[in-house]
Design a protein that fits this description.
single chain; alpha/beta; Urease, subunit C, domain 1; 5-stranded antiparallel β-sheet; 13 helices; 17 strands; 34% helix; globular; Amidohydrolase family protein; Amidohydro_3
Length: 406
Amino acid sequence: MTAIDTLFQNARLADGQLVDIAVGGGKIVAIASSPQSYGTVGATRDLGRRLVLPGMVEGHIHLDKCFIGDDWKPHRPCTAGFSVRERVKFEKEALAGARPIAVRAAALIDLCVSQGTSHMRSHVDVDAEVGLRHFEPIAAAREAHREKVSIQIVAFPQSGILTSPGTASLLEEAVRAGADLVGGLDPAGHDGDVAGHLDAIFGIAERHGVGIDIHLHDGGLQGIAEIEEIARRTKASGLGGKVTISHAYALGEVAVDVVRRTAQQLAEAGVAILTNAPGARLFPPVLLLRDAGVTVFSGNDNIRDSWWPYGDGDLLERAMMVGYRSGFNTDDQLVAAFDMVTTNAARALGLRDYGLTVGGAADFVVLDARHVQEAVVARPKPRDVYKAGRLVAQGGVMIGASAQKQ
């Protein structure tokens, strides 16, 4: 007989089945559609036939950049069309007068968790100017908030690597200090040296056994060539399943036959694609990539920062946006959008005990919807958010530590 910390009754699963979910030691120890005999049961909660979904996975966010928890900062447009270099310049100027990273990151973490996020991957700026001054408070936040969310950190060269001398060494230092992945940024468009940029990133990853997540805005056939080279290097280095290309706009800008060819290479190499379906840009064809065997997932990316003023951390909202912009209308397509912020994102992040399954972590969201499709199109609130079986947020409000232990 297994001792149960909490027995959640009248839970509605995605297939409509009503079940009890037994949780012990932060794990799901039983899911049953009929009454079962257990050992000691610490507490019982009736979920009232509300829908229970796995905790959502934020696949791409920048915790060090946001202005959540700070004064409103009006957006500053680029002077002559979008430019990564100019945006970075504007960002540094705005952040110089912002509240401390620890304050803003904590506010954004709480906002995301209150919407149902259980796991996230945050890119954190590392360059010759800021050194590890962004990494250190985010690493501290990862530990401080670990009871309500798990956080992966990408050491991200926002100012480039070859064009920012000393950054390669700083990226490696960040990995030694606990970064989970090493990042990259437009090897051709920003650094002007695809081979040199990728040599640096893959070298760090191979030496330290960490993953890779590369921002790739470079478009057209140039971007496709970079994607194919990343796939080739991933396969050659045995890093399959640990490499992500974020944005990959080129996949939405070229002919379908080129995308199919590239998708096959990505699938064979084990390279995932992250897209947030940004407003004014073409983006990768989600279903074509998925059907080719590529893991395609999503995230909010920038939230109320120097890059754009939008976002509230709601991953159901993000799933709806991806589906809306992709022309998803059928039930299966709406589920595909939902998978991008749950199971697909968990696979890309390498989360081993994810999902509403016996043995999985008891991370889940409870809300008023009849099924996943309604959850995506209606994004219902309020939501109850559980981490390791403990209530961490209710109705958009974080629950205090003492209440978590009840």
